[in-house]
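example protein:
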Amino acid sequence: MKKLNMVAVASFILIFFSCSLDKRKNQETYKQEIVTVEKDFESAVKEKGIAEAFYFYADPDAVIRRLNDSLIKGKDNIRKFYEGVNFENIELTWTPDFVGVSEDGTMGYTYGKFVRKTKDANGNSTESKGSFHTVWKKQTDGTWKYVWD
């Protein structure tokens, strides 16, 4: 009987630690997916422009907070917002300093620093720096889209 109890306890411990290792491995995979989508998003801003990039990476119900704490809701309205402001002479870069992800891998968030460089009509450059916080949601097709920025 003692031998059977020892085998049961040992089996439980092995299963428990195996599940914990798998969970940590999955967490790291999800975090890497989010870092990748952040960098793809940043590249899309350079290649396609701010309006198209923010539209493409937005969840249908995404919300962004801009200008005097205004909330812009929905990916179509986000595109309209960015199309309505002159962003032609803006270079935007950012890097997440931290990535967190839910245990089930369906939600994640990042925060870090951004740099915005602008040029005026005379070609003079201005640089501003700040911080960002983005909340990501995994879509049914496996892609990540932001729900808050």
About this structure: The longest strand covers residues 125-138.
